[in-house]
Amino acid sequence: MKIAFPHMGKLYIALGTAIEILGGEVVVPPYNNKRTLELGSLNSPEAVCFPYKLVLGNYMEAIENGAEAVLMIDSPGICRLGQYSTSLRTTLTDLGYDVKFINFDLYKGKLKELYIKFKEATGNANPITLIRAINMALLKIKILDDVDRVLAYYRARELKEGDADKRYFRGLGEIEAALGYKEALKAKNNTIKYIKSTPIDKNKEIVTIDLVGEVYVVLDQFSNLDIEKELGRLGVHVNRQINLSDWVQASIMPSVLRFGKTHEEKARSSARSFLKRDVGGDAIESIGDVALAGKHHSADGVVHLLPFTCMPEIVAQNILPNVRCKEDIPVLSLVLDEHMGRAGYITRLEAFVDLLKRRKRVEPKVHSLSTAII
Ligand code: SF4
């Protein structure tokens, strides 16, 4: 069976590896692009949240490219994510697509459900291979987050624009191709070595920005118009506060297998004085991340990304002015949707970065630790 799944940042690298180890055949849809969004928007309710439209577009393009089964997630929660798989299934069926739906029902538990659904998708019932596949996927997710952190440092300081990214993409191919632990770790070390060979100006005037918000748009370069790269170009060291491994820890990993507090748990406790209860999605994490950045002076400013009509992040956006005043940290909220214009978006980023640079010259607060070389 040819299996497909939607994009979410670089998740396709980890999930594709797991399915390959289990003997399945993967159809990776084209990375999110204008056509994906057009297909998704055309067949979605207008007011549904932005990630839904891209996910639907991914499924449609994957099925056009020969996918026979699609993986979906039924997730507990109090936002629209809980309705995603039902609505997507109905839409794809109404559109006449003949495809098998394989639902990871996270209401039913995590590891057991992963085992059952991977078995259904790939036909492989060997628990040892399954454990190996899951471990490899988790390792790759950790590797991808680690190399992204190194890239953020070099991107902000590179002498020639795009140099660090070129080296990063060279390594990314090696990470993607690795099927064993040693191979994956070697690919990680190579990638870091390539990135570190980028000529940089260590004395460049840098500001640090924490990137927070709804996980899908924070991770997806198409939705956020490649914000990390744009900020890097402006001399910004970006610390992405919500990563793929945080999402996997919180959403997929059973609590008994976790080490220490998850990002969500840490953010939740620092958000407590501003928001007492979970309002769904990543809202409480957005608030907690801004509060933490202000309290620890770990960033010069924060960019908060939210998809248009995302209910939890609209709540967060309305609470953030309080956090900003109490913790004395500048915050820029950017709403993302299919009507977003690139020029206006970049202008807002440039103005925000200018403001942070001027503020920093007058009152340097940020700990050097946060911008230290990794
Ligand atoms: S968090 Fe927001 S954008 Fe994400 S699924 Fe929920 S409502 Fe949609």
Report on this model:
Helices cover 55% and strands 11% of the residues. It is α/β, with parallel strands linked by helices and 374 residues long. The protein has two domains: 124 residues, Rossmann fold, CATH 3.40.50; 167 residues, Rossmann fold. The strands form two sheets. Strands 2-1-3-4 form a four-stranded parallel sheet, with helices on both faces. Strands 6-5-7-8 form a four-stranded parallel sheet, sandwiched between helices. The chain starts with a strand and ends in a 12-residue tail after the last helix. The relative contact order is 0.11. The chain binds iron/sulfur cluster. The site of iron/sulfur cluster has 13 residues, from α14.
Topology:
Layout lengths: L1 E3 L6 H11 L3 E2 L7 H9 L7 H15 L4 E6 L6 H14 L5 E6 L5 H12 L4 H31 L5 H15 L3 H16 L10 E7 L1 H5 L7 H7 L2 E5 L3 H8 L11 H9 L11 H14 L4 E7 L3 H17 L3 E6 L5 H21 L12
Parallel strand pairs: 1-2, 1-3, 3-4, 5-6, 5-7, 7-8
Helix pairs in contact: 1-6, 2-3, 3-4, 6-7, 6-8, 6-10, 7-8, 12-13, 13-14
The protein binds iron/sulfur cluster (SF4).
